[in-house]
Every structure is written in C-alpha cells, then in structure tokens.
Amino acid sequence: MSDDRIEVRGLTKTYEGGDPRRPALDGVDLDIPRRRFVSLIGPSGCGKSTLLRVIAGLEDHDTGTVTVFGSTPESMCEAKAVGLVPQTPALLPWLNVRRNVSLPARVNRRAGRGSEDPDLLLRMVDLEDAARRYPHELSGGMKQRVAIARAFGLRPDLLLMDEPFSALDEFTREALQLQLLGLWERMSTTVVFVTHSVREAVTLSDEVVVMSARPGRVHEVLPVDLPRPRDGAVVTGPLMHALEDRVRASLQSAWEVGAAPDDLVRR
Amino acid sequence: MATSTPVRSRSGDDAPVRRRGTRARGSALSPGVWLPTAVAVVLVGFAWSAIAADQPYLLPPLSEVGAILVEDPLLFLTNAWSTLSIALLGVACGAGTAFVLALLMSEVPVLRRAIMPLAVVLNVTPVVALAPALVVAFGFGMAPKVIVTAIITFFPVLINVTTGLRSVSVPVLHVFSTLHASRMEVLLRLRVPSSLPYTLAALRVVFPLSIVGAVVAEFVAAGSSSGLGTMIRNSAATARLEYVYAAVACLATMGVLMLALITLLERRLLFWHESQQRTTS
User: Fold this and answer.
1) Which of A64, A184, A205, B161 could form a Cys-Cys staple with B102, CB 3.0–4.6 A?
2) CA distances (Å), origin B51, targets A74, A111, B54, B238, B268
3) Where does the chain cross the membrane (chain A) (predicted)?
4) Is residue A191 within 8 Å of residue A184, measured between CB atoms?
5) Which residues, other chains included, contact B196 with Cβ-Cβ below 8 Å and sequence gap of 6+?
6) Model confidence at B93, in pLDDT bands (50, 70, 90)?
7) What's the rounded Cα separation, in Å, for the pair B147 and B153?
8) d(CA B183, CA B179)
9) What percent of chain B has pLDDT over 70?
10) Residue B22 confidence (pLDDT)
C-alpha cells in the first residue's frame, strides 16, 4: 500500500442481475502516481465509469483492493480529498453560481478541510461576472466550468471526471480542456478522466489507459510524451497525431478482444 | 415576448438563455390574453340573466346576488373568515403532518412500509362519512371540521412530497457522497429543495380542496352557527337562492385568491424550475 499512488489490484465487479461470466470489471490492475493526469478510454460497456465510481467509493466491488494514496476511497471522501465532476454538471439549480462553487466548503465541515476562495476559482474559469447568476441562466459550457470550479474548490488530492465535456460542442470542449489544464497545473491534483474522445485523452493526459469490454479489463497503458504546457503548437504537431493513431490502434484491438459475436454480424 | 440577454464568455461558449426576472411584462394586459375570458364571462352572464328572468327558482337574478353582497358585506366577510379559518387550520394540520411524515419516511424505509398502506386506506375512505362521528366525538366546534379538512388535504401532500424527496438526480447525490455529506445535510440541502416543485404542486391541489372540506364539514356538522357552508345550508332550506349564490361567489373568490397566492409562491420559490421558465424563441 503506497501513499504516493492510486493502486487497483485484481478488481472484479459484477452488477446485480448481470452475467457472472462477463463482469463489468474483471481482474483490473492499475497504478496511478500522484499528480498525474490519467485518462480512461475504451468502448462502451468496458467499465470506465464503473472503475471511476469504485475509486470514488461510490460503488462496492466483489474482489480485489483499491487504495488511494494509502487510504481507502471512503476515508478519502470522509476527509473531502476527492473531487467529482460527473457527465452532467450536477449543479443545484436553486443556488447561484458562487453558492454552487462554495457548496463543498459548507458540506461536511467535520472534515476540517480548507477551501479556495470561490471568487478566485470563478476568476480562474472566467466566470467572475456570472457569480450571481443561476444555473438555468448559463450555457452548457458555463455550467460545466462551474462544476469544475466546484470540484477544485477543496484542492482535492484526487479529481475524478466522468466524460465532463461529452455534451459540449467541439469549440467549447477545446476551450474547456485548456482551462482544465490550466487549473490542474496550478493545483497539482491527480486527475482520473473518463472520455470517449481519443484527441481529448491525448491532449490532456500523461497516460492513457485503454480498456476492453466484456469483461472490462485494462487492455494497455500508453504514456503520452507530449511536452507541457500543451499549447497550440503541441496539440497540432506530428507527435500528437502519432500518439492519437497509437491510441486508436490500441482501441481497435481492445474492441476486437471484447467484441461479442453479435457485434460482428451485420444486421 | 420574453427577451434573452446573450453574453459571450472569454472561453467562447455562448451564454444563456434567460436572466432571472426577465419575464415578459405586460403580457397579461394583451387583449389576446384577457379578451377570450372576458367574452366568456359576458356570455355566461347573459345566459344566466336569461334563465333567471324566465325561471327565477332555478337561478336568482345576478343583480340581486350583487345587491346582497353590497348591502351586507360584513355578514359574508364574517362567515367567509369562519370557513377560511377552518380551511387554513385544516391545511396546516393535514399538510404539515403529511410533510413531516414524508420526511421521516424518506429516511426510515420501514416507516414508509408501515404508514403508506394506512394513508392509502385513509385516502379511499369517504371522509364525509366520518364527519358525523367526528361531530359526536368532538362537538359542534371547529375541531371536527378542521379534522375533516386535514384528512382531505393529507394524502396529496404526503404522496407528492414523498415523490419529491426521492426525485433527486443521481449525479448530484454522487457529488454529495464524495463530500461525505451527512444524511441530514443531504436531506436539508438537497432533498427538501428538490421536493419544492412537488410540494407546491400539492398545495395547488389542497388549498382549493381545503375549502371544499371546510364547507362539507359545515354542511354535516348540524348546529354550527357560522361559515359559508352553514349559510348555504340554511339559505337553501328557506329557498333564498340569492344568499346561496352570494355565498358560492365568496367561496369561489376565496379559491381564486388561494390559487393566486400559490402562483405567487411558485414564482418566488421556483424561479429556477422548468415550470417557471418560458422559451425565448
């Protein structure tokens, strides 16, 4: 048990009523060092989000162990050391933007964890002018920026992001990726990021974990050796394209490993 | 027509949809809104007058109903207050009890399994049939009338609040879980505000229902001396239809005012909810 990494060992998880021969996660082993940005990518049903929820302590697992920097996921949550950005922004619609961002500081005060100034966080995501507005007055991209600011509010040791940009248009998505990288570099947090986008995974990550489905397993862990900061020159360079091709090839082989006979029949 | 205030953020994504409070002004004054209602009211008035002129034992002339209301407003105000007090006390007791029980049931599932069947039985029981027994038990005072009204208003609030407390988005619950929020924090900061639209929808139903409950209780509780229900019963017995319809008009006005109050509350408390937002296109 190491306190400088997230360790997942022999993790197995079958959903109630699911096929026991095809668990959602089957013997997953994974190491994520502290302060790394790691993306989980894979075909639908490969257990990316399940793995994320198990690391967050939101779901039980059948066998195996998960330790987060030497603690259990539950202990990490008790200490408010985990930030979560779900697929939908999950804001409280009756609170204005500032109150939403400062919500984590007002919940579970027993943890005694300090928090960032919400106004500073809003400045960091370019939303200082929207502090008094309500979620229904914001666009999808703005809502997701509020959710990100909220998650960074406690300077969490671990930030879990479950396809946070999947509902956004390409332009907004790229702008938010840059903002996220800016916040991450400033906060030095460990990020586990679930995505379906190869480009997004390579742009953001230090490592891309490619998963295969049926059962959900880690297929391959690919290091991303792009320099940081990931500015325009980096993300349009030839190395970026080569890495994207590498991830795509790995995804293709992961899909073939996990494809059911039904998937291969043209209907 | 509602307007929107687009704001472009530095990150490029377009903002919003509509600012708080940019509800269209003056729309209620637009002839398209009030004219159809006004025409319908005038037509009903004409039809009423035609029937009243021909068969006054069916409907009293509107002028007589109006005259009685103008001549002795205190009589109607006093009786309306009596009925209204029963209705409001009944809502306070019935809806209040239902709200507290819904909170308890949301936290203690076994309580839900114990209470819900009883509540369903109470809901399908014709409460009017209980009223005479309540009069025997509690006398001719306010108590039996308040109990009848409370029982009538109890179930809609219980069902709606229970549903509202459970209708919380899973991603938000996950965020609260990763913060290790206590059950009380989840209840007060998340479940109760989430249930507000359901609670107010229930109040929209039970406030008018409470008037019905109060009037029915006054009908059944023979011997009561005040209230619009009592007035209607006594006036009908002596064929004074103008008094009956004047009292009915007062009851209708009370119902409309209660609905207006709920609408106002909804606008104040649910400004964030889809039900209070208008499309801008």
Assistant:
1) B161
2) 76, 75, 5, 21, 43
3) none
4) yes
5) A94, B164, B269, B270, B273
6) very high
7) 10
8) 12
9) 88
10) 46
Under a CB-based contact definition with an 8 Å cutoff, are residues B197 and B164 in contact?
yes
> Can you give the residue range of the structural domain that contains A223?
5-93+157-258
Q: What is the pLDDT of residues B59-76, one digit of tens each?
A: 999 999 999 999 999 999
Out of B9, B178, B190, whose CB is closest to A84? Answer: B178
Shortest Cα distance from A185 to chain B (angstroms)? 18
What are the CA-CA distances from residue B83 to residues B88, B135, B146, B214, B257 (Å)? 9, 16, 10, 6, 14
Residues of A in contact with B7 (CB under 8 A): 129-130
Q: Does B188 touch chain A (CB under 8 A)?
A: no
Q: Which residue in this structure is represented by tokens 């920026």?
A: A145
CA-nearest residue to B182 within chain A is A108
Within a domain: A117: no
Total structural domains in chain A?
1
Q: Which of B15, B174, B178 sits opposite A142 (nearest CB)?
A: B15
Q: Which helix (H) or strand (E) segment is A246 a member of?
A: helix A238-258
Q: Are B171 and A171 in contact (CB < 8 Å)?
A: no
Do A19 and A45 contact (CB within 8 A), yes or no? Answer: no
For B274, the closest chain A residue by CA position comes to A136
B272 to chain A: which residues are within 8 Å by CB? 93-94, 134-136
CB nearest to A139's CB, from B16, B178, B179: B16
- Pick A77's closest partner by Cβ from B12, B178, B273: B178
| Residue A136 forms part of a structural domain | no
Is A131 a domain residue?
Answer: no
Q: Do B171 and A140 touch (CB under 8 A)?
A: no
At the top level of CATH, the class of B61-276 is: mainly alpha
CATH of the domain at A193: 3.40.50.300
